[in-house]
Amino acid sequence: MSTIKQITSPEAWEQHVSSLPPSTLLILSFHAPWAAPCAQMATVLSTLASEYPVTEPPSTSWVSIDAEELADISENYNVTAVPFLVLIRNGQVLETVSGSSAVKVRNAIETHAKQAANSGASSGQPAANGTNGGAGAVDQEDIEVSEKDPEKQKEELYKRLGDLVKAAPVMLFMKGTPSEPKCGFSRQLVAILRENAVKYGFFNILADDEVRQGLKEFADWPTYPQLWVDGELVGGLDIVKEELVSDADFFKPYSVKANGDDIRASA
């Protein structure tokens, strides 16, 4: 079974890339040790990697990079949030996946691994098609059951939302991303977090309508943005401003020094 290799230096990265044949699908994962979603994604990727046999030449190669430690490599691939997955073949970026959706990651990897197998680019047949243990088939059955059973679907959504609001000590659910806010309120709240040097996770609710609608009910709060601290809802822009007026040190426990540490956790 395949395993994930940790790359710890630019030299090791260059050496690894140069050693791969053009047909190999390189699965590159960027992470940060402080971001809880990255730990979850590491487990997902480790499980997926185990479904792909080691072949000669290698059909897949799985590597992980600390986005903050190797900032130059992160910049090359436009990494602004973690976890962040890049799929590469023959030096060309095929697809990127930002965030911690196991379904999106699995689908992306399976799609490009199968393309290689179908075209004959790889001598090894990846196990993601269910030929090795059937793990993919079981996951698909679970998904189908969830879609058919509204109660189970809601239960799973609430579990996901419960994990998302705790994905980082400070979590911002916003319209757009910190670099491209899609509403004025989200833009102002991002500015407040930056002014207070807060290290935070974020979720773009425009990219996932299930979360967008579900979180309103889960939080009993009908509008966005929403700011959560230690798994508890603080509120929207007005509430955050009120908190800072009454307590100027409200964000102090979550602030970091201005050391260029601008990579955020994307749930």
TrEMBL record:
Domain called Thioredoxin: residue spans: 8-102
Which region ranges are annotated with the description Disordered?
A: 116-152
Give the CC-aspect GO terms: cytosol; nucleus
**Keyword annotations from UniProtKB, A to Z:** Iron, Iron-sulfur, Metal-binding
What GO MF annotations does this protein's record show? 2 iron, 2 sulfur cluster binding; disulfide oxidoreductase activity; metal ion binding
Tell me which InterPro entries the record gives: Glutaredoxin, GRX_PICOT-like, Monothiol_GRX-rel, Thioredoxin-like_sf, Thioredoxin_domain
Give me the stretches of Polar residues compositional bias. 116-126
PANTHER family cross-referenced by the UniProt entry: GLUTAREDOXIN FAMILY MEMBER, GLUTAREDOXIN-3
Q: Which family does it belong to?
A: Belongs to the glutaredoxin family. Monothiol subfamily.
- Function in brief: Monothiol glutaredoxin involved in the biogenesis of iron-sulfur clusters. Binds one iron-sulfur cluster per dimer. The iron-sulfur cluster is bound between subunits, and is complexed by a bound glutathione and a cysteine residue from each subunit.
Q: What is this protein called?
A: Thioredoxin-like protein
Q: Which organism is it from?
A: Apodospora peruviana
